[in-house]
Amino acid sequence: MPFYLYSSTYNLVEIQNNFYTNVAIKPLYIKYYGKSIDARCKERNEVCHNSELLKIMKNTPPTKNSLIKKSLAKRKKKFYITNSYWKKALQHLSSKQDAFRFSQFITLVDLSKQVLVLVLWDNDTKTFHPIGFDFISSGNINKEIKTNTGEDHYLKTPSGLFGIQSGWRSDGKILDDNVTMPYGQKNTYVFYFGKQKSIRYNTFDKNGNKIKDTNKWELITDKLQLALHAHKSSAPLGKPNSHGCIRISNELNHFLDNNLVFFKELYNNKKEWKHSYNKPPKEPKNYQFAGKYLFVLDSM
After folding, report:
1. What's the rounded Cα separation, in Å, for the pair 258 and 66?
2. CATH 2.40.440.10 describes domain 81-297
3. Which of 74, 94, 268, 270 has the smallest C-beta neighbourhood within 10 Å, fewest atoms?
4. Cβ atoms of 111 and 298 closer than 8 Å
5. DSSP labels for 123-182?
6. Which residue blocks in the chain are alpha helix, DSSP H?
7. What does pTM read for this prediction?
8. Nearest CA among 267, 292, 293, 289 for reference residue 278
């Protein structure tokens, strides 16, 4: 990192490095050192937590930390943006170029790879630039077998170009297992893209009884309230597990939030937040790249 640098009117290196540090590196330090940090920072003190985390990252940088180096190598083995992959991505992005009328961030999701690639469209040079990637978890229709009467169904995450319609901030609710946070940490943003057409398996017969024989399942059309949001549970990112929404890490959510990736319509020319009842990002920046699009592909 950085990678694939082309001529641009913007400082891509800084944005790419910021993404890599906050989305790829920090979660690894939290994974390995989170418990010791929590022990030193009582009552989930966010200021203390961030301070301790930065100290550890400074004292044992990724290049000198065997645990971090090993995890980064494993991450790269699972996926990274190759030249051939980026060329395919460019073909898809170019097919929607008419929608991108100003320089902006675009969120590209590849369901086959279970990854989100953040892209910057430079309208001055008419060029797309990859900023970085992270793993996601999308809808898994095969989990419909677990659905009981009255519960939410498991739908396929729909593909297409979607503009954000609204959103809200998570209340940080933790489920009874004391692990799962369905919408991520408190105040992470839930990016909502409206009711979209999708498909799922119908696993109930006409009498409302569960169909155990999977050969008798039928695919039917249904509607999904599509959102992209943080999620923490025992179900890992990088594999389909959701009811149809796109799950992301808290760290990626914070980056999308603070870099205004979907907030073009929520800031005026004076860089003032216009939402009447939702809190603005804590550290807003890159106003000139604020966007609104989620581009979901079944595969490259």
Report:
1. 30
2. yes
3. 270
4. yes
5. TTTTEEEEEEEEE-B-B-GGGGGGPPTTSPP--PPPPEEEE--EEEE------TTSS-BT
6. 12-19, 26-40, 46-59, 66-78, 83-95, 250-258
7. 0.93
8. 267
Q: Are 96 and 161 in contact (CB under 8 A)?
A: yes
Tell me which amino acid residue 181 is.
Answer: M
Tokens 């923490």, residue located: 232
Rounded CA separation 5/156 (Å): 35
Pairwise CA distance, residues 240 & 236, whole Å: 9
Write the burial class of residue 295 (CB in 10 Å: 0-12 exposed, 13-18 middle, 19+ buried).
buried
Q: Are 228 and 107 in contact, with CB atoms under 8 Å apart?
A: yes
Half-sphere exposure of 79 (CA within 13 A, CB side): 19
Residues 137/101, Cβ–Cβ less than 8 Å: no
Structure tokens that stand for 292 in this block: 């609104």
Q: What is the DSSP string of 267-284?
A: B-TT--B--SSSPPPSS-
pLDDT (tens digit, 9 = 90+) per residue, 165-203? 999 999 999 988 888 899 999 999 999 999 999 999 999
Please report, for the chain, the start and end positions of each structural domain, with discontinuous segments joined by +.
Answer: 8-78, 81-297
Is residue 90 within 8 Å of 108, Cβ to Cβ? Answer: no
For residue range 108-155, what is the model confidence (pLDDT) as tens digits? 999 999 999 999 999 999 999 999 999 999 999 999 988 988 889 999
Give residue 49's pLDDT band: very low, low, confident or very high (50, 70, 90): confident
Cα gap 279→30, rounded to integer Å: 26
Burial level of 206, CB count in 10 A (0-12/13-18/19+)?
Answer: exposed
Handedness of CA 74, 77, 82, 88 (dihedral sign): negative
- Are 196 and 158 in contact by the 8 Å Cβ rule? The answer is yes
Are the C-beta atoms of residues 136 and 116 closer than 8 Å to each other?
yes
